[in-house]
Write a structure and sequence with these properties.
Length: 93
């Protein structure tokens, strides 16, 4: 199953827009809670990396909605979790 980066999605009653833009911090993706956005530079990396970046930022959003601020700010946890989730989704049959 291929991961599709959506234009928007709902999580916890909030609609989050996914926007394609260059990010000032020179990262590929960024969760923007106040703007209800995920920004991803879709041209900054191969599609697999863009897909994994979306799952990474989605993980941030889920943890934010859950009020798990310590985990939400733990980049190592978020990155490992997102890589494992991305692999599970991509290889599901």
């Amino acid at each position: 199953m291929e991961i599709q980066v959506p234009k928007k999605f709902d999580v916890g009653g909030i609609t989050v827009d996914v926007v394609d833009e260059v990010i000032a911090s020179k990262t590929i993706g960024e969760a923007r809670y106040a703007k209800q956005q995920i920004a991803i530079n879709m041209k900054a990396a191969p599609q697999d990396t863009v897909n994994q970046t979306f799952i990474h930022e989605l993980t941030h959003w889920i943890l934010f909605i859950m009020g798990k601020n310590e985990l939400c700010n733990d980049e190592q946890f978020v990155d490992v979790f997102a890589h494992l989730l991305c692999q599970a989704i991509k290889t599901s049959r």
